[in-house]
Amino acid sequence: MSGRQLLLKVLSADSEDEVAWLWMTEVAVSEKERVRCLQNALRTNPHSEAARRGLEILQRQRIARSKEPSSPKISVGD
User: Fold this and answer.
1) pTM for the whole thing?
2) Closest C-alpha among 3, 10, 53 to residue 28
3) What is the signed CA dihedral for 12, 27, 48, 52, rounded to 10 degrees?
4) DSSP secondary-structure letter at 13?
5) d(CA 37, CA 71)
6) Residues of the chain with pLDDT > 70: what percent?
7) Residue 19 DSSP symbol
8) How many Å apart are CA 8 and CA 28, to the nearest integer?
9) CA–CA dist 39, 35 (Å, integer)
10) From the CB of residue 12, how many other CB atoms can be counted at a distance below 10 Å?
11) pLDDT tens, residue by residue, 29-62
């Protein structure tokens, strides 16, 4: 059984397990899933500094990516 499967099993037994939600961010398959996991950790513990910090980091990364210039398009045959 993978770590992800174990964490999902823990969360199915106790959806209020803040630590499991925080660990889920490490095995999440997308940024959207990471955000959802961190939001669930905050729902469980509104004072969670780890969840709050994780959301801030993801937000900064999203902003940085949006400011990156797009790659120039190269035409084949020029």
Assistant:
1) 0.81
2) 3
3) -130
4) H
5) 32
6) 88
7) H
8) 11
9) 6
10) 8
11) 999 999 999 999 999 999 999 999 999 999 999 9
Helix %, strand %, coil % of the chain (to 5): 70, 0, 30
Per the listing, tokens 């004072």 go with 47
CA angle 24, 11, 54 (to 5 degrees): 30
Instruction: Please report the pLDDT score of residue 69 as a whole number.
Output: 75
To which residue do tokens 């925080």 refer? 22
Please choose, from the candidates 18, 70, 77, 20, the residue with its C-alpha nearest in 3D space to the C-alpha of residue 42. Answer: 18
- Angle between helices 31-44 and 18-27 in degrees, nearest 10: 170
Query: Which two three-digit tokens encode residue 16?
Result: 């209020």
